[in-house]
Every structure is written in C-alpha cells, then in structure tokens.
C-alpha cells in the first residue's frame, strides 16, 4: 500500500568512508529529484547521533550536526520506534559492517521500515537470519536491498536476481570477488613479466590502503566466503554459513596466532617459498594463479581458494583491484554473462546503496 | 497512485521468436509469483489477434488461441481504449520492431498504460518522440522500460541509468553492440590465427542465422547506431537521430543498390580486397580490427565504425557473437565497468523484457 504523502524519511547508521560518500550522493539526489521529498531524520556514528522531534536534519550539514551533537546513538529498538513513528514511510540505510545492526533488520522490516545496505553480515550470517529478514519484509511489505554487499556498485546482485526471477537456470558462478586479492595476484603473478615476492606485495597492498588494518582479515578468505554465501543463497542454495564450505586461507598456520598485523607482516617473508612454488607450478603449465570463489549449482558445491587459469582467461587478464563475476546459465550457454570493474571504494559502494534507495523509493513512495 | 486491486493486465504485441520466449517466461512467472495476479488480455501477430470482453486469455494456450482466432488486430488507438477500460492497471508488451507501435507509446503511456519492450525504434527515432514518451510517462505516472533495446538481456540500460541517477559522470561508453558484427570480426580477424575471407564469413553468418535476411541490414551499421543513440540520450546527449553522427557502412558503394540480399552476397567477393587491406594494416601494428560504437561525453561525439585494438584488449578478446560494453566514468576511473555476454537471441532478449515487467509490477501493483 502506498503512503498517502509524497515524503520519505531516511535514517543513516555509519558515517565512515561509505557513509560520507552516500550522504553526498543523497544530497545530489534530493536536489535533482525533488519527488518524493527525501528527509534525513537520523544520522549516527558508533559514538554519537543527530536527530530531533521534527525528523529533520540538513543533508548537506549532517556531518557537522553529527560532530557537534551531544546525543548518544539510539539503541536499535529505540531507533525502530522512532522511525515507525515518523509521519511517512522510512528507510534505514545501514552503512556499517556491524553484526548487531544486521541482526536488527527483521525488527525494522517487520515494522514497515525498508532497509538498504552494503553490509554483508546480515545476508552471509546464519541461514535463519536470512530467512527472518526476507519473511519479515514479505509479511510487512517493506523492501530490503543490498547490491553493494557483493562487488560494491557493480550490478551483481540485481543481475543474479533478474536471471533467477525470469526463470533462467544458473549452472555456475565464478569470479574474483575481492579487490585486495585481485590487486595481490595481479601484481604477484601478472600475465606478462614475473611479478613480485608475495610478502612484498602484501606489504605494498597494505601501504596503499588496499587491505584491512590487519591483512590477515583479507588473507583468511572469509570476506570472499561471505560474498559467495550471499550469491549461492540468491541462486537457490540454502548455504548454512560462510564457514560451511571449503575456504582456503592464505595465512600460514604458524602465523595465525601472532599477536598483530605488524608482526604478521614481519614474519611473512619466511613463508614466501610456499606461494612461490604455487606460482611456479602454474607457470610450468603456461598459467597464472588467482584467488577465486565459485558456486557449482549442479553439484551444489561452493568453494573459495587458489586456482590456475590460462593467461587468455578473463580472470587472468584482470587489472588493478578489479572484480570479475561470470554467470554461467542455461540461456547464456557456454559464453557467460560477465560483469567487471572496481568492486571496492567508498564512492562505488555508496553508488550501489544510492541506486538501491532509488529502487525502494520507486516502490514505496 | 497504486491500483486498489492486486491484478495487472498484460497485452502482448508480436508473436515471433522474442514474443514466444516471453510468453513462456510469463507463464513461469505467473505460476511462481501469484501476486499480483497476471492476466494476459490481448495477444497479436501482424495478421491476427486474440482478446475478449473478459480480458482473459490463457497464458499457456495463448499461441493456440491466436492461431485459431479469426479476429484482426485492434488498431493502436482501439487497443489503448481496450486497455484503459480494463478493470485494473495494464501493461503493453511490444515484442515487435515496428515503428508504428513505437510511435503510439505516448498515447498508451498518457492513458496510464505502462510499456515494456525490446523495440529500439521508439528510443532511437526522432528526439521529439523520445521526449514525448518520457513526458507522457512522467505526467501520467505510467512506466516505460526497454532494457533489451541494447544488448538484449545484458544489464546495460539499467546500469547506465544507475550511474547517471546516482550522480556519476560518464566520460565514455565504448563497445561491440551487434552480435552479428561480433561474430563476423571474431571469425574474420581472430586474435589467434589468420581468419577467413570477409565475403565467406558474411555468407557463413547468414547461413547460421546470425544476420538479417538481407545482410546489408546489419552491415550498414544502423542497428549499432540506433543502440548508440539510446545510450547517448540516457547519458545526457540529446542526439537528434541515428543518422546525425558518423556511421561507417560496410556495404561497398557499388552494392548498395543491388536488388536482393542474394545478389549482394554473390557480388561481395569482388570487394574482399578492401576488407583484407584493413585487416593487414591492423596486423602490421600487432592489432585486430573490430566494428565498434563509442560515445565520448567530453567532446559530445558519437561514432560507429571500424577501429583497431591491441590483441590483449577486452574488445579484441571477445568470443562468438558476444557483446561487450565498457562504461568509463569519474567514479570508476581508468578501469571501466564492463558488461559482456550474448546480446541477441530470443530467450535472452525476452529475459530483459520479463525482468523489466517485474520492475514495473513492483511499482504499479
């Protein structure tokens, strides 16, 4: 049922890189498309929040209002009450990677509040949470969109949904789903030239800001496993969790428990020979090694880890920190539908969030 | 304003390859998602139509009902009257490539009837028709979607819209937009090996059903020019028509006016040396020749024709009859957002139509 007013209230949790980019896109959107009227009614970081009884925060001035606010963030149930009491429909934009916020999506959705987010946690956690989220949305008629949870702004989730919703049969999904892993392997084992030493490439990637503060959070493969979990579920495999299928970690056993990312980087050169052997083995076959995820719908298997590719394969030819995702389906036959481009970064991640918001607005306003 | 009932009436014009694939996808969709209730109320070919005062045609039996019908198609104004009088909202699905039907979109849209189509004619004809269509939709609140007008089911138009709507700045769009041209050049000038003779490849493509009945309708470049016109307009360039920018035709001047496609194919070998020279010139630079379209937003220029690419370029590495479309934008930087895959065929074209219909349903029902 459409709301009688032509206004929508937006609450934003998270004011980091993605949150800031999103606010700037939201300001431009509100200026360019005055209908429906977009009213920012809540903004919070982990420590503070800005909101008021008029449900009105300036979009352009939100970050200043947040910085100068003396209010603590509302608890999630309080925020749900606040939004449910808004004078028109409300959308929660979760720009965090918080499990707590993710766990509260069923609450928001069941109260008619739509959710838009790049947060992977809700869709790659327990299968029960996944079911609770979509059941709550279906029951209450609220919407939930999460394009940026895989491949940032690349149209990965919308394309998979379109394939499934129009009755195509997905047989396999394969790709490079991590900008960090893409950068590391494109530098370590390039198609042309010999590439660098593994530990040196990891160090460089960290210095360039391409890794998490502790690079082990990328190298353990869990980020890729989370994305595969989301895609597998959308394709129809009820994957229980991101640890319920084989995930290859690139952290040497001996370094799993060292106390810090710095100590890890210091000791990593001692293990370069392992990665060097993998690279040589591939080279001997005229191939290169890449860190990929794949979902085989026929055998119902999901896996994440190192694989070898011909140098002419699109996965081998990837550049920089780009992602690539190939959808093999019955309709598309032997040549897959391929989507490629930057899969990380504040602006492109926020783009996925903003385009999701536009889709929600077209349905609720 | 949402319709009070939870039913939507669908009228389908066109029962060729795309039309048949669409009906089969529509039947599966109606069975899988019973809400809103999808009622097929009209189906027509160029000669016949099936419809009744109950607004009810069996989706599964539509083609038989059409074959055994003795009714002539309604005129387009009559069809608009018929749909406007339906007991709930209606969607017109135009699975033809007819200019007449395209010219009537403003009429349907202005009467609240949404339009979904793979027909390029409406969006690549005169700029006035383009404006009339979107003005009528905006005024009446009806929807118009045409994903399959470029790249069939590939998410080309939705991605470009998302980029523009979220405020990214498109700087360049480049790609191979014709399955026929893709097949011809991937065979004529492959990355590995020497390829075939030009006229022999054209003949083969025709025999395999990859060309129009008269291959000149592909070789004149107009199909690609129409697609470029659509993308340029969506990106913000008010291109007047598909003949208002440079389009290179691959039809030798001397063969433009021969009377039939067969005569053209018979005489084409006499002109093979021209294409052979182009291929050799590229080879001397270690490149291959491809038939591409490009839109440069900075210089506001659109062009269609032959260009040379390094053998490692994604456009050179294309396979079979795949399309590839690269979006260069401010946010995506030097590595474009790339979409690749089959850009022609009944099933994938119908997929774009069906997914558009799903988007329209989510907004009007």
Give a written overview of the molecule.
Two copies of one chain form a homodimer. Chain A has 365 residues and is of the alpha/beta class. Chain A has two domains: 7-152 and 347-364, NAD(P)-binding Rossmann-like Domain (Rossmann fold, 3-Layer(aba) Sandwich); 156-343, Dihydrodipicolinate Reductase, domain 2 (2-Layer Sandwich). Chain A is built from 15 helices and eleven strands. In chain A, the strands form two sheets. A six-stranded mixed beta sheet of chain A has the order 3-2-1-4-5-6. A five-stranded antiparallel beta sheet of chain A has the order 9-8-7-10-11. In chain A, strand 10 (322-329) and strand 11 (337-342) form a beta hairpin. The radius of gyration of chain A is 22 Å and the shape is globular. The interface between A and B is large, with 45 and 44 residues.
SSE diagram, text form:
2 copies of one chain form a homodimer.
Chain A: E1 7-13, H1 17-32, E2 37-44, E3 49-50, H2 62-68, H3 76-84, E4 90-94, H4 99-103, H5 105-110, E5 114-116, H6 121-124, H7 127-140, E6 144-145, H8 157-165, E7 170-176, H9 179-188, H10 198-207, H11 216-219, H12 222-235, H13 261-267, H14 272-284, E8 287-296, E9 301-310, E10 322-329, E11 337-342, H15 346-364
Parallel strand pairs in A: 1-2, 1-4, 4-5, 5-6
Antiparallel strand pairs in A: 2-3, 7-8, 7-10, 8-9, 10-11
Helix pairs in contact in A: 1-15, 9-10
